[in-house]
Specification:
The complex is a heterodimer. Helix content of chain A is 40%, strand content 12%. Chain A contains eleven helices and eight strands. The longest helix of chain A is centred in the last third of the chain and has 29 residues. The chains are: A alpha+beta, B alpha+beta.
Chain lengths: 408, 370
């Protein structure tokens, strides 16, 4: 048991370090990773990586990737994180959308899209969630119908929601209902679409946190070719599972305010007796709990890396990350607010400790607990896929979609 | 990155599981629980000694297998899984580890081979009453090599041959090795009768200091750091078994026409258990690495391992009973073995709240040094 790279890993890391030292940006360009103001920087960095063979490391060579190992990709990510690199608006496209295209599209389509995506010239978004179906993606109501002119084209009408990056995306993959007369999972089909088509309207969502990182996307008689279909008619659910499987490999979690920021703030904030709040035993107990959770997640990632390093499939333990980190983000930030007492209400980067990080965490945490699988859905996934417990009884399983009861 | 046990260590773990399934079914644990005269499972103790486990981490020169602490960790996890009713922790994690850490060559030669052979049982005697152990409340004392004082509770104090005792000498706390022959012990009623404890009264017992004069509390902290990691593996093993029991029962129990495992209230409860168990396991692994390499991070890693494992085992053992419903509250079911053991393991080497305070103190010192 050790934390050292294997011989091959060490060699790869050294090569990556050398390349980054020569090529990575040295100063932060200052931008909102969710926004589009840094797109030019992001594209430039992505193009540089692609030219050097550091974009899409794990993709097979026939897709234009490097045919590398997951661990090489992790090593590059670790080393890249040591530099002030611009935001990565390509993650959803390269992590989920384009692999779906590469798995299900015809040769011409694959040849057309992979290169520009890898080089950051074209950005993709994933259009799954709808106002009527967040956790229940298979309840999608956006519909595609055959054009009446016999061309074989499809006409799409409906609305998607919570689409990250739609405002600057060139293309997207969309799951739509092509047959409402069969049960919900069986009447779905996947397509790729041109996001710049005038029949596609993107409206930013004003989040409760004040920002606008996500969008609503409206389709009004969007006409597409049958050749844009990914997989068979009615196979959309199966295709989406491939997409979401790739999502699970794109590991994410809460960043920002953690135990060490809390500890620093507690050192500088007066407690009940005028001394540092860090001397308050109830805060110390909580601090210990957060540290232990954070360390637990860190070493769980180390276990995942070890499995990758040995060429094994990581165990299910990697599924616990977001459940733990999102809840902790909310609780820790709120505890910091309460520690600040009356002053905690101030949400001003110039006045609040840690540049208002605790206040913004409190306001963003509700979103993190929902995005990419709610706490509840993630617990279902652990219960069903890890522990082998039965799925919920589905009252809609054998009901034609059009006959399914709906609420708002 | 190689943050996992080796194939050999996993093989040892598999062998340990098979051995304990054959030699320590819960029916054996129940015999110790229900028989007041039975302080531990002597047959299992002999069998475990014959396997060489008592000396797994003791060097060959002192009669052990000379494997290492990672091997001891995998054995500990399996012992925790079956709630083994033997004085393994007292003898190996506490006494043997203390002697390996601070003993003179003569002390190592005198005790380690006997521990490895299963000839002596150890115990750690620090508590004298309710509340945390500290220099301020310590009254046991050593004078002219003779120890006097009362320790309560002392886990395995009624069966131990050698005690490691915290006592003052010239007003300074020290740790002392004491031969238990002739010492008065009174068995106590405890929450976990599968791991006995006693009130021990020393009246001029012969005592030999372990480690430096006045170093008792520092040394005790180091010993408990090491023990905490091994105990964390026992706790993780017990927590995993509790989750399995809950899962198995939920899958076969029907209510309202379906298995209770199909209700989200149960599924989410079991998912919560899984999350805590994995956090405990990952922290325990880091502790194992720190213990095996004697890393400077050991005190922080030990604290985190102990806190996470205590939380996981408590949660899993209590929610296992809850998942079982009424039958889980009966004497005849095994659920309470794990509930009892989770209390025993959380309290035997400093309660979690003490470790949380220690952890934050260490983090403060680390930050100040950085």
């Amino acid at each position: 048991m050790d934390f050292n790279d294997s011989h091959e890993e060490a060699a790869y890391r050294a090569q990556v370090k050398t390349w980054l030292e020569a090529n990575a940006p040295k100063a932060h360009v200052g931008s909102d990773p969710e926004g589009s103001d840094s797109l030019a920087d992001s594209r430039a960095w992505q193009a540089k990586k692609a030219a050097a063979g550091y974009a899409c490391i794990t993709w097979p060579k026939e897709w234009g990737g490097q045919g590398g190992t997951p661990l090489q990709s992790v090593i590059f990510g670790q080393e890249e994180a040591n530099y002030p690199i611009p935001g990565n608006p390509f993650q959803i496209g390269l992590g989920m959308c384009v692999p779906t295209v590469m798995n299900f599209a015809d040769e011409a389509t694959k040849a057309r899209f992979s290169g520009p995506a890898i080089r950051g010239e074209e950005i993709w978004c994933q259009l799954f969630s709808e106002p009527s179906g967040g956790s229940d993606v298979a309840a999608a109501r956006t519909k595609a119908e055959r054009a009446s002119d016999g061309s074989g084209d499809w006409i799409i009408n409906g609305q998607k929601v919570w689409t990250t990056g739609a405002q600057f995306s060139d293309f997207g993959i969309v799951i739509v209902r092509t047959d409402p007369t069969v049960p919900k999972h069986k009447g779905l089909t996947m397509f790729w679409i041109d996001m710049k088509d005038p029949a596609v309207e993107v409206k930013p969502i004003h989040q409760m946190s004040g920002g606008s990182g996500f969008n609503e996307v409206f389709f009004t008689d969007l006409r597409i070719k049958d050749s844009q279909r990914l997989g068979g008619i009615g196979d959309g659910w199966k295709v989406s599972l491939v997409t979401l499987m790739n999502e699970r490999l794109a590991v994410g979690g809460a960043t920002g305010m953690g135990w060490s920021q809390f500890m620093e703030a507690a050192r500088q904030t007066p407690g009940m007796d005028g001394g540092p709040a860090l001397k308050d035993s109830s805060l110390r107990e909580k601090l210990a709990d957060w540290y232990v959770q954070a360390e637990g997640l860190k070493h769980t990632r180390n276990r995942t890396m070890t499995a990758l390093s040995r060429g094994q499939t990581p165990g299910p333990e990697s599924s616990i990350g977001k459940i733990v980190s999102a809840v902790q983000m909310q609780d820790l930030a709120n505890e910091a607010l309460e520690m600040l007492d009356q002053y905690g209400i101030i949400n001003d980067v110039d006045l609040a400790p840690q540049h208002g990080g605790f206040q913004s965490s409190v306001m963003f945490a509700p979103g993190l607990r929902i995005a990419g699988g709610t706490d509840e859905i993630l617990k279902n996934i652990i219960a069903e896929r890890v522990l082998g417990l039965p799925g919920d009884i589905r009252v809609d399983k054998d009901v034609a979609f059009k006959d399914m009861p709906t609420g708002r | 990155m190689n943050f996992d046990f080796s194939d050999d260590q996993k093989f040892l773990k598999g062998e340990a599981r098979k051995f304990l399934e054959a030699n320590c079914p819960t029916s054996q644990v129940r015999k110790v629980l229900e028989d007041d005269a039975k302080a531990y499972d002597a047959d299992l103790w002999k069998a475990v000694a014959a396997q060489g486990w008592l000396g797994a981490a003791i060097p060959e020169a002192h009669g052990g297998l000379g494997l290492g602490h990672l091997e001891l960790c995998v054995i500990a996890e399996e012992l925790g899984r079956v709630v083994a009713p033997i004085p393994f922790a007292s003898t190996v994690y506490m006494l043997a580890e203390a002697i390996m850490l601070a003993g003179t060559e003569a002390q190592k030669s005198a005790y380690l081979p006997k521990i490895a052979a299963g000839e002596i049982i150890g115990c750690l005697a620090t508590s004298e009453g309710p509340g945390a152990v500290s220099a301020a409340t310590l009254s046991a004392s050593v004078d002219g090599g003779k120890l006097s004082g009362v320790k309560i509770p002392v886990t395995d104090g009624d069966i131990a041959d050698v005690a490691l005792v915290l006592a003052k000498e010239g007003g300074q706390p020290g740790l002392y090795l004491v031969d238990m022959a002739g010492v008065v012990r009174e068995p106590l009623k405890t929450l976990d009768p599968t791991r006995d404890a006693a009130k021990v009264t020393f009246s001029g017992a012969k005592a030999e200091r372990l480690g430096g004069a006045g170093e008792g509390l520092n040394l005790l902290e180091q010993i408990l750091d090491r023990a905490a990691i091994l105990l964390a593996f026992e706790q993780t093993g017990g927590a995993d078994r509790s989750l399995e029991m809950a899962k198995d029962y939920a899958l076969e129990r029907y209510a309202f026409g379906r298995t209770i495992a199909s209700y989200q209230a149960i599924k989410h409860k079991l998912a919560d258990m899984y999350v805590k168990n994995e956090l405990a396991r990952s922290n325990a692994y880091y502790g194992a690495w720190a213990l095996n390499t004697d890393a400077s991070e050991l005190p922080i890693a030990a604290s985190a391992a102990r806190i996470a494992a205590s939380e996981a085992f408590w949660f899993a053992s209590k929610e296992n009973i809850q998942t079982h419903g009424g039958i889980g509250f009966t004497w005849q079911m095994d659920c309470h073995f794990y509930y009892r053991r989770s209390r025993q393991l959380s309290l035997v080497a400093g309660a979690p709240r003490i470790w949380k305070e220690r952890l934050v103190s260490h983090l403060e010192r680390r930050n100040a040094a950085a």
